[in-house]
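Record Alanine aminotransferase 1, 519 aa.
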Amino acid sequence: ESKHQSPTRPDPVRSPLNYCAQRIHFGGARSVPAAGSSPTSSVLTLDNMNPNVRKVEYAVRGPIVQRAMQIERELKQGVKKPFTEVIKANIGDAHAMGQKPITFFRQVLALCSYPELLEDNNFPEDAKKRAQRILDSCGGHSIGAYSTSQGIECVRQDVARYIERRDGGIPSNPDNIYLSTGASDAIVTILKLLTCGEGHTRTGVMIPIPQYPLYSATVADQGAVQISYYLDEDRCWSLDVQELRRALDAAKQHCNPRVLCIINPGNPTGQVQSRQCIEDVIRFAKEEHLFLMADEVYQDNVYAEGSKFHSFKKVLFDMGPEYSSTVEMASFHSTSKCYMGECGFRGGYMEVINMDPEVKAQLTKLVSVRLCPPVPGQALLDLVVNPPQPDEPSYTSFMKERTDVLAALAEKARLTEEIFNTVPGITCNPVQGAMYTFPRITLPQKAIIKAKEEGQEPDMFYCMRLLEEKGICLVPGSGFGQKEGTFHFRMTILPPTDKLKIVLERICEFHQWFTQEFS
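=>
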């Protein structure tokens, strides 16, 4: 502060409430600050906050996204840029990218939100029946009421029937279904259950590299130990059990490996695991006594010829009782991906298999602390797992919309691979599934040196320059993990085809300019 400031002026750091509170006397005695603290020191600081939170990183909404939002504000203020809009290709947010909602889903949700519309003849009868059934299962016939903590019973029943149909009749028990706030919430909950121990006995969690940063962030937040196993980029990001064993054996020196996470179809890499690969993973999990977590939120997003989604549960049960009665597993699904893209409703579920009944009771207790998942999200999930049937009036339009969305994504997956592979210095594997591509980029040595001078990872430096020059927001591969000495970026294929072509064109132009600039 200036030495000329009036000595009677309150310290600007103090809020009025704190300033007054420091002068309150209880029982005639003045409160005394704790030793080592001053009356103006904060209760919560970076030094005394939860150290695990400081370790959390989430690249999908990291510094580059913050800069993109700042540039958007600058454009609105009239600041001149080499582009007129920022195109955010950093996140799998389908509706934000222009995808239209599925009509039937929104009709039923509208009816649930405003039941007076049930009298409106503009809504089809099957939509009204679905809405009425959901409302009848809600407290006070309102989706504004809390549900049971595990989720609305009729929705869990519908999820179980959906799983049975998907997996060819393998039974699913609604009591093993937990509805959740998107799949992310359920994944965090299971990892919280599994984390224990100290030092060398601390839980180790095996996650694929590249990975979706939810996993590394949650492992850090829980104070668990990340065990990285690398997907094989040269074999279209396939998973090799020998690599799992290498990672596991190395980790046993400093932690207790207990969990194996699989993302299939893959995020950010877009691969679809073969049935043989899934069988090998299940055998490995049994041999090493690992809890399996199967992230299957992209199960409808399969595009490549010869690729097919196989659920871990179906493969597990097809392998017989030796595996189906012993391997502990949780699988996850969401309303945010596939053809729905309903990210904002935060609907999802997990199914737990072979979980110890006493642990399951603790899981139920844990989810009850959060009261319940969003009820509109539960209603939406019910429609995803119980869509219009062939004898219902909405079936034809529903199937057309669903098919059109998935066909457009398949075409955009093909287009992305094709265009990127025409550019020297960009190598793109086929996008077999999911919603992203994760191409490898070759960066000049001068650019790598320049990035280090600026305290950035080289692919972060690349993506930041791309944002400043072309208005394209991507996520650097370093935010997902990658082999030392390799560089990538993740890009969603969700923009409409005409806008996607612009994105691809700008990235290709930029890469050629960037390479020349730093050669």
